[in-house]
Amino acid sequence: xxxxxxxxxxxxxxxxxxxxxxxxxxxxxxxxxxxxxxxxxxxxxxxxxxxxxxxxxxxxxxxxxxxxxxxxxxxxxxxxxxxxxxxxxxxxxxxxxxxxxxxxxxxxxxxxxxxxxxxxxxxxxxxxxxxxxx
Length: 134
Ligand SMILES: [Zn+2]
Prior knowledge:
With 134 residues, the chain is an alpha+beta fold.
């Protein structure tokens, strides 16, 4: 079955609050990076594990259709029953994947930041290893 995605104002609002208030997301706040938040009806799994969300770069060739630098996708069948606090944790994790750097001419360059362990230490330290399940 094909995946259907839609643009979610709700996730965008939660993500914006995080970007506005979280010290570890200040590099996003201070950048021109744009992030589009999507919901998906895909119950995505990868390597035997449930995938709750994902952060992707928008390829330059696709920017005519998606006017953003990053996409955050929430795989909704896997997030059933999550309240806003849980969604906020998930979005915080996905936002930590947003990398903002600079080239030698001072232009912003964007990348996906990989996990610093199995997960992000910041999420585990804050909410424990079961941060997404608990
Ligand atoms: Zn991740």
